[in-house]
Structure formats: structure tokens, C-alpha cells
């Protein structure tokens, strides 16, 4: 699970794992947890998103079957930066077969971009050789999180 800093990755991870909101600090390095959903065990790596540590993302890509890219839907100033990081990551050879789930997070905020707008701004329609899905989400309430995992689990099962 990757995305720019303050997108909500750690909050999502622990909402899925513990079912509650945890107080977070910026992640330097990573958090890793196993999340169970419908008899599938997901090993979720929540990797820090600050710009200085983004080059480290690639060290987590080996054996990755699905990427969860988290976007702060309220951060209009940095959505183009999110797009650049996403495109850079998807060009990595180790991720050529990975599914892409985008969480358009922070949908509870009044000025949040909806999933269609995020799709457009991230250039998702241009991803021809990639199976992807965008899910509107709110990490703090949990809205959309299990719907995203549902899509991921369904599509991972199709590959077995």
C-alpha cells in the first residue's frame, strides 16, 4: 500500500486490521500486518510516503500481486504529484502483472474530489495493460475499504 504522505495509508491499514482508528505519526519505513478477508490472507505493507523515502518503495515490489494506491481526495494541490508517482511505480518491471486498487480516501471532507475526478486526474483510463479499480473511501469510518478488498480478492482469485 503506497501513496503520498498523509494520504491515509496507516489509518486504512489499522482500520482493516483492528477495526478502529489509531493515532498515527508519519511512517518512516513501513508497517506490515496480515489482514483477513473472506478466507484470503492479505499481507499488507504500508510504506512511508514522504518524498525523501519514496525511492525505497521499489524494494517492496517483489512478489507483489496487488497494489493499493491511496490518494487524499481533498488534496487538489498534490494530485498531479500523486499521478507522477503512480505512473513511475507502474513502470517498474516487478509490478507488470500486479492489480491496481486506488482508494480515493477522505471522501468525508466537503471539498473532496469524487472517484471519477480522481480517475481523470490520475490518468487511470490510459492504463491499457493493467487491471485497475478505484474505490471511494473514508479510512476513519471504514466506508469503501471492504468494497476495495472485495474487488482485489475477486480479481486475485481469477488469476489462480
UniProtKB/TrEMBL annotation:
One of its GO terms (cellular component) is Golgi apparatus. Pfam families: Arf. GTP binds at residues 3-10, 49, 105-108. Gene3D superfamilies: P-loop containing nucleotide triphosphate hydrolases. SUPFAM superfamilies: P-loop containing nucleoside triphosphate hydrolases. InterPro entries: Arf1-5-like (IPR045872), P-loop_NTPase (IPR027417), Small_GTP-bd (IPR005225), Small_GTPase_ARF (IPR024156), Small_GTPase_ARF/SAR (IPR006689). It comes from the Eukaryota. Coiled coil: none annotated. It is found in: Golgi apparatus. The keyword Protein transport applies. One of its GO terms (molecular function) is GTP binding. One of its GO terms (biological process) is protein transport. The keyword Heme does not apply. Keywords: ER-Golgi transport, Golgi apparatus, GTP-binding, Lipoprotein, Magnesium, Metal-binding, Myristate, Nucleotide-binding, Protein transport, Transport. GTP-binding protein involved in protein trafficking; modulates vesicle budding and uncoating within the Golgi apparatus. PANTHER family: ADP RIBOSYLATION FACTOR-RELATED. Belongs to the small GTPase superfamily. Arf family. This is ADP-ribosylation factor. It comes from Ceratobasidium theobromae.
Amino acid at each position: 500500500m503506497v501513496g503520498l504522505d498523509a494520504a491515509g495509508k496507516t489509518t486504512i491499514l489499522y482500520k482493516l486490521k483492528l477495526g478502529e482508528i489509531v493515532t498515527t505519526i508519519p511512517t518512516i519505513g513501513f508497517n506490515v500486518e496480515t489482514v483477513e478477508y473472506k478466507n484470503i490472507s492479505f499481507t499488507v505493507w504500508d510504506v512511508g510516503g514522504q518524498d525523501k523515502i519514496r525511492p525505497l518503495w521499489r524494494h517492496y515490489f517483489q512478489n507483489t500481486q496487488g497494489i493499493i494506491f491511496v490518494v487524499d481526495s481533498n488534496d487538489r494541490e498534490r494530485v498531479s504529484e500523486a499521478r507522477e508517482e503512480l505512473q513511475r511505480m507502474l513502470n517498474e518491471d516487478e509490478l507488470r502483472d500486479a492489480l491496481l486498487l486506488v482508494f480515493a480516501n477522505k471522501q468525508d471532507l466537503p471539498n473532496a474530489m469524487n472517484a471519477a475526478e480522481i480517475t481523470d486526474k490520475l490518468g487511470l483510463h490510459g492504463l491499457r495493460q493493467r487491471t485497475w479499480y478505484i474505490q471511494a473511501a473514508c479510512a476513519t469510518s471504514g466506508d469503501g475499504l471492504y468494497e476495495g478488498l472485495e474487488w482485489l480478492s475477486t480479481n486475485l482469485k481469477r488469476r489462480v
